[in-house]
Every structure is written in C-alpha cells, then in structure tokens.
Design a protein that fits this description.
The protein is of the alpha/beta class and 286 residues long. The chain is built from ten helices and eight strands. Strand 7, helix 8 and strand 8 form a beta-alpha-beta unit. The radius of gyration is 19 Å and the shape is globular. Keywords: Signal.
Length: 286
C-alpha cells in the first residue's frame, strides 16, 4: 500500500559541464533560478508537508545515474561547474551547442541507473530478504528497482522474484515515485562511497524529501545529512533494516521527512548563493 504524499517535489538535475559550456549554462540556470520564490510550489516550508497516512509504502532501492558520480551541492571548480537546476525540465540543447553532446545527455535524461551487481550489494540484499519470512509475508513490502534493465537472474532467489518491481521512468515521474515512497535504502557494495566517491542516491533522497536507511558509518562520512532525517540500522541484515523502517509510526515518519525537507531547503539556498557568485564571475569575464 502506498503512503501517499500530495504536493510538489523539487527536481534537481546534476550536469557536469566542460569549461567552454560554463558561461552559457550559468546563464540558462540563472534564468530558471530567477523564477524561484520561497512560496512557489516545490519550496515547502518546514512543517508544511502533509501528515503521513497510517499506510506504509514500499522501500525504494536506487541506483545512481551513470553520469552522476558525485554529490556536489553547487560547488564551483576551476575546471568544471556542477549545475543544479530546480523545478524545470532541462532541454540539453539549450545548454550545449554541440548537438551530439546534447543528444547524448538527453538520452540519459530518463535513465535511472545500471543495476549491475558490482554497483550495489544486490546479492546480499536478496539473500537477506529470502531468509526473512515475516518480511516476505508483509503485504506492504516490495522492492522497487529504478533501472533501465533487470537484475542478473542468477542472483535473484525465486522466492523473491514476485517482490521486485522494475520501474523505468522519466525524471518528473521518477522523482514523484521516490517522493511517495517510505524510504530509500543505500546498498553500498564496499567502502568506495565512504572513502573515494560520493553517492548521487543521497542527492536524490534529499531532492525528493525521502528519509534514508543507513548504517552508523554513513553519518560519520556524510555529515551534511542530519541524523534526524535517517533511520540508522545497526543490523547486518538488510531485511532487518527494512523491517525497522516498516515499523515506524506515521508521526515518526513525518518527523523524518520534514527534517529531510529542511535539509533540502538548506541545500537549495546554498545553490543559489553559489550560482550568484558563478554568474558574477561569468559576467566579469565577458
């Protein structure tokens, strides 16, 4: 059963641009950002989100987009600019004069990731779920996999097959699905996303205002995510961690999602500040 949440959602698109594209992209992003208002749809104030219903939805498992490898909230670098465009559908042809580059990025615009086993610990997850009869019997439980292809069938236990729902959606529908889900579970396959890379799944959770299921190490590394926006599981079993999320009361879940919404607002305000500086730099060098 779905835990419905009405209202708008914040759409964040990450683009990594070559230096020659920075000025043009900054102008395009600036035009869109000029339209924002604190009272506009997609910019909820803390506490303005509707209360959760007593029904609890599925647990979403998200792959990072293949062209988004880092979570960088509007950071400006000497060689590249990471652009976050809010509440707009991005026409890459409006940013890139190179038709080939625009078509390539547009082809990825509705791509929710590559579900290869080395990218996420699917094997461990599926084995844990198969060994958890109470979880398997829970009618509220399903595994939503947002990806452009299915998992390797050799790693999927037959008993779990009926619980997996594959979804391939365009970005507005994709973020809406995430927004209306109970929680997002991170399935890091090792220490890479704690040591040498950031996960775009975290940016997605913040953008959609969805709590995450994490381990204790997560909070030590991703310090910009407040503890009150996540469910920390100390269990080694993914199934037990998901049962913790399913056991939340409506009030508990609402508090988590409101905290994540506040985190999103903070990130957006940082983006606006960074964009203002980037646009000033761009104008000064014209």
């Amino acid at each position: 059963m779905s835990c419905s949440r009405s209202g708008q959602y914040l759409l964040v698109v990450l683009l990594v641009l070559a230096p020659s594209s920075v000025s043009r992209a900054a102008r395009v992003a600036g035009r869109h950002l000029d339209r924002r208002h604190s009272s506009a749809p997609g910019w909820p104030s803390p506490g303005s989100l509707p209360e959760a219903t007593t029904g609890i939805s599925s647990v979403a498992i998200l792959n990072p987009f293949p062209w988004c490898y880092e979570v960088l909230f509007g950071a400006v670098y000497s060689l590249q600019l990471v652009v976050q465009v809010v509440d707009v559908y991005v026409d890459f042809g409006d940013i890139f004069e190179d038709t080939g580059a625009a078509e390539f990025l547009q082809s990825l615009h509705n791509n929710q990731g590559n579900p290869d086993a080395h990218r996420r610990n699917y094997t461990g997850l599926l084995q844990d779920v198969a060994a958890a009869p109470e979880l398997m019997k829970d009618p509220r439980f399903e595994l939503d996999l947002f990806a452009w292809k299915q998992l390797d069938p050799t790693i999927v236990p037959k008993s779990v097959t009926s619980k997996i729902v594959y979804k391939h959606l365009k970005f507005p529908q994709f973020y809406s699905e995430i927004h209306n889900t109970l929680g997002l579970m991170l399935l890091f396959p090792g220490d890479r996303y704690y040591i040498s890379a950031s996960s775009s799944s975290i940016a997605t959770a913040i953008s959609a205002g969805v709590p995450m299921i994490v381990d204790a190490k997560f909070l030590e590394v991703y310090t910009f995510v407040p503890p009150a926006a996540v469910v920390v599981s100390h269990a080694s079993s993914h199934a037990v961690a998901m049962q913790q999320m399913l056991a939340l009361t409506a009030d508990d879940w609402t508090e988590l999602s409101n905290t994540m919404a506040l985190t999103r607002e903070t990130a957006v305000l940082r983006n606006v500040q960074i964009f203002s500086k980037a646009l000033a730099i761009s104008s000064a060098h014209r």
